[in-house]
Amino acid sequence: MDKETSGFNKKTSLSEEDYYLSPEGYIIFTEAYHLKRGYCCKSGCIHCPYGYDKKTDRFKKD
Predict the structure, then answer these.
(1) Quick check: 42 and 32 in contact, CB under 8 A?
(2) Quick check: 22 and 29 in contact, CB under 8 A?
(3) What digits encode the pLDDT tens for the residues 19-51?
(4) Domain spans, the chain
(5) Non-local CB neighbours of 33 within 8 Å, separated by 6+ positions
(6) What is the Rg, in whole angstroms, of the alpha carbon atoms belonging to the chain?
(7) CB contact at 8 A, 18 and 28
(8) In Å, what is the CA distance from 54 to each residue of 34, 40, 48, 51?
(9) For residue 11, how far is the Cα from the chain centroid?
(10) Is the model more confident about 6 or about 15?
(11) Nearest to 49 by CA among 6, 38, 57
(12) What pLDDT, on the 0 to 100 scale, is given for residue 6?
């Protein structure tokens, strides 16, 4: 699979509501960004709207 068909070559524009920078300079994605993306990456993101718990590898049920 080459870059053209893999999806890694796609550039996505981020708006101000999609992220902010931590004091250390890291990009922190917001809940709005995750909802726009449409799926959980299972990385234990701070603002995960899907309820994923990295410690248990499960989704929290409300």
Answers:
(1) no
(2) no
(3) 999 999 999 999 999 999 999 999 999 999 999
(4) 16-59
(5) 14, 17, 18, 19, 47
(6) 14
(7) no
(8) 16, 11, 11, 10
(9) 15
(10) 15
(11) 38
(12) 47
Q: How far apart are CA 52 and CA 59, in angstroms?
A: 4
Rounded Cα distance between 39 and 20, Å, is 20
Band of the pLDDT at 61, cuts 50, 70, 90? confident
Instruction: Give strand ranges (E) for 11-53.
Output: 19-21, 27-29, 52-53
Which residue type, as a one-letter code, is found at position 1?
Answer: M
Partnered with residue 24 across adjacent β-strands are: none
**18, two tokens:** 């999609």
pLDDT value of position 14: 87
